[in-house]
Design goal:
There is one protein chain. By secondary structure, this protein is α+β, with helices and mostly antiparallel strands. It is 35% helix and 30% strand. β9 and β10 form a beta hairpin.
């Protein structure tokens, strides 16, 4: 086992497009989505501990709602890798949080992916990236993308990934709410809305993929969509005002990210992003507004 510590960084994600099927027999939903990784990220610091011991502490922002017990996805990731690799090793994990909690940005999934990479390096398990991706898929639908990064087409329940050709950098503003939304509650609301009719299989519009390939930002904005957005707005009515305010202030596209409640706005450049972030806060339509860019790399070692 390596001495010292390993630091791994993993990105937040947004869904530029999210189409959702009806519920499967296993309770999951088939998705047709375009994942996009942002340079907003969490760090996981992994340090040696006594054999079999896994502990977790959390620092940074947005820490109040993060559990540090066995329910945390990062702890589960460490234990899953130890079982799979057959190692009797321990780890002391520290999460440095920057990604808002329960905001539809997959911060917990990013932490799990970072933990897999960090523990793999610390314990020198020799697992390949494909093996880590397999473990990631067992942990959660968004964890494989946090390993992958970039821009990717997601299918299945989100764990099946294919790269998307996307030119240039995209600039975003994230309008963060003071309180999160429960992903299971949002999905349950969608299922209830659709209970009276059959739901066709979701499909990412070809026009969106063409727009990403051609760096046609206005067209990307037009084709951004999220099947979960109406439910999130019903559960949190203030989101409709946030969406409308960002559009009125000149955003090229606007949508609720994932199950929400974070709202993301596509803008043409960094200067516009900084201005829109300030204007949204001044308008009182969000708790915090962050400028971010993408695509960003997946979980990777940044210090050891």
């Amino acid at each position: 086992m390596r001495q010292g510590r390993v630091v791994v960084r993993a990105p937040a994600k947004i869904n530029i497009y999210l189409g959702v099927s009806g519920p499967r027999r296993d309770g999951y939903h088939d998705l047709a989505t375009v994942f996009h990784a942002l340079d907003l990220s969490d760090d996981v610091v992994a340090e040696p501990a006594d054999p079999g011991q896994v502990s977790l502490s959390v620092t940074g922002e947005h820490t109040g709602e993060v559990p540090t017990d066995e329910s945390n996805l990062a702890v589960r990731a460490a234990r899953a890798l130890a079982r799979y690799a057959g190692v009797d090793a321990g780890v002391r994990l520290t999460l440095v949080k920057r990604i808002p909690v329960a905001g539809g940005l997959a911060g917990g999934s990013a932490d799990a992916a970072a933990t897999l990479v960090a523990c793999d390096a610390l314990w020198q398990t020799g697992c390949g990236r494909a093996e880590l991706a397999m473990l990631a898929a067992r942990l959660g639908s968004d964890v494989p993308f946090a390993l992958h990064g970039g821009t990717a087409l997601g299918s299945g329940r989100g764990e099946c990934l294919a790269p998307v050709m996307a030119r240039g950098r995209l600039h975003w503003v994230l309008a963060v709410s003071a309180e999160g939304l429960s992903t299971p509650v949002v999905y349950a609301g969608l299922d209830a809305d659709r209970s009276a009719h059959e739901v066709p299989p979701p499909e990412v519009p070809g026009a969106l993929l063409t727009a990403l390939r051609n760096a046609d930002l206005p067209a990307v904005g037009v084709h951004m969509a999220n099947d979960l957005q109406p439910v999130a707005c019903r559960l949190r009515p203030a989101l409709a005002r946030t969406l409308a305010t960002g559009r009125d202030l000149g955003a090229l596209g606007a949508l609720v990210s994932g199950s929400g409640p974070t709202v993301v706005f596509l803008v043409p450049d960094e200067r516009t992003a900084e201005g829109l972030a300030d204007d949204l806060v001044d308008a009182g339509v969000c708790h915090q507004a962050l400028a971010a860019t993408g695509p960003a790399a997946g979980a990777r070692v940044v210090a050891s």
